[in-house]
Each structure stands twice: as structure tokens, then as C-alpha cells.
Amino acid sequence: MSSLTWKDVPTRTIDVGGVPFVYRELGPSSGVPLIFLHHLMAVLDDWDPRVIEGIAAQRRVIAFDNRGVGASGGLVPNTVEEMGRDAIAFIRALGYEKVDLFGFSLGGGVAQMVALQAPDLVRRMILAGTGPKGGGGVGEVTKVAVLAYIKAALTWSDARNFLFFPRTPDGKRAAREYFAALKERTRDRDRGISMQARRAQLEAIKTAGRSAPDDLSVITQPVLVANGDCDLMVASSLSADMARRLPNARLTIYPNSGHGGVFQYHQAFVPAVLDFLAH
């Protein structure tokens, strides 16, 4: 077991079809790895170390920047289907034939694409703060996100204060703790998200929201679905609808929390994930 923590684990690069993809990994070298797929406008430094390190205490965790994100090369595609194909190519480039997936927000949409496009690759899946393709409100994410980013600019703050956490005393405290954790890494930080990546990701989300629903009944792997009960970006009703359509899913809704419910409730979420992955 490595003694490294998330704040000092090195950033690695792998060639994926001629494109450099950056990633970081932590935890035991044996067993099925858990691949982290991150949210809208996020890079490697936006993963909550409390979640990464908690899970990496028992499982191999690999977080990466998909094509065009952060320090990875290429351009971000404007559909979740293409993002899924890129994620599959990255996983296969690492040499894995079986992985678990943790998709948060946009990453949850990408995780669904991976499971649909390469079902043999996926053993188990965690979908947090996300919904199904064609789930009406998913298309509203762009509007909500833009308003939050405007509000953040006017108040010199991070938009995730408004998007991830409720504006309650508990929510504000959770936000402070979350942002403090994100700042722990001070060296070898990732490159910021580009304007091209922002536009393409928002376009992908809008397109997914307007698309015909996928047949989720073909995803027979065990799935853990989680969300906050006051999610402004992806309503918990959409997460519940997705869980109902997945034949082997269980749903957890965290109370008095928003899009970042799994971070606000990391002390409950991490053991739930480890228990889920252990079976």
C-alpha cells in the first residue's frame, strides 16, 4: 500500500490513440480499479480528496482527464456518446479488462455510455448527482449553471457554492470544508478547463437532455445511485427515475443537500461505496 495521499500522488500521462491523457492513481495495486469520471468543467484537482482517499484505503482509484479536459490533449467532443468512447479507450490503454465506475454529474452520463457501449468492461457502477439521457430537466443544467456562474462572478466566489451545497448553515459549512480539501494539493496541479471544453460539455449535456432515452434495462450490473434531495442541477426525481429503470440499482438520497450531496455526506458515502464494491 502506498503512503502517498491524494495531494502528493504524481500525475501520469498515457498515450491513447496518439493523444496524451493525464491521470492519477491511488490505493492498492491489486483488484478491480474504480475509475472516476468527473463533473462539468472539472479537472483532476476538483475531486474531493476525502472521497478519493477514503475509497483508496481499500480500492485502487484512478481519476483521469478525458479528451480535451485539463492537461489531456485533443478537443472535448460535444456528445456523451463520444466521451464514453474516449473513456473506454483510456481504460483499455491502461490494460484493464474489467473496471468499476464512479460517475459524478456529467461523469455519470459518461459512465452510462461506457456501460452501454462496452458492457463486458464494467463490473459495478456508482452514479451520483446524475440522471438518464432524455430526462427532461437534464437540459436545464445549462441555464442553472450559467446563472450560478454569473452569481459567483458577482460575489467573487466559486459557482459550486451555489450549485453543490444548499445555502443553509450546514450547507455553507460543508462548502467551506469541501473547498478547503480541494486546496490541499499545492504542487503539480492540473491545467484549468478551457473555453472549448466548457462549450462542448454544455452542448453535450443539452443534447443528452433532448435525446431519446436509452434503454437502461440492458445495464444489468449492480448500480449504486446517489443524490442530494435539493439538487438544483439534476433533480433527485431524475436520479430516482434512472434507478427505477436500471434493473439492479439501489438509490440513496441524502437529506438537506444539493448536487454535491456525496461530498457533504462523504462520511456516509465512502463506507457505502466500499460496501457496495466489496460484493
CATH second-level architecture:
3-Layer(aba) Sandwich
Cα Rg: 17 Å
**Order of SSEs, N→C?**
EEEHEHEHEHHHHEHEHH
CATH class: Alpha Beta
CATH topology: Rossmann fold
**Overall number of strands:** 8
Q: What is the averaged pLDDT score?
A: 92
Number of domains: 1
Distance between the termini: 21 Å
Helical fraction equals 25-40%
Domain AB hydrolase-1: 33-262
Protein name: Pimeloyl-ACP methyl ester carboxylesterase
Organism: Propionivibrio dicarboxylicus
InterPro entries: AB_hydrolase, AB_hydrolase_1, AB_hydrolase_fold
What does this protein structure show overall?
The model has no long low-confidence stretch (mean pLDDT 92). The chain is of the alpha/beta class. Helix 1 (49-56) packs parallel to helix 10 (266-277) and helix 2 crosses helix 3. It has helices spanning 49-56, 80-93, 106-117, 141-154, 160-163, 169-182, 195-210, 236-245, 261-264, 266-277, and strands spanning 12-16, 19-26, 34-37, 61-64, 99-104, 122-128, 223-228, 249-254. The protein has one domain (12-277): 3-Layer(aba) Sandwich (Rossmann fold). It starts with 11 loop residues before the first strand and ends with a helix. An 8-stranded mixed sheet has the order 1-2-4-3-5-6-7-8, with helices on both faces. The chain contains 10 helices and 8 strands.
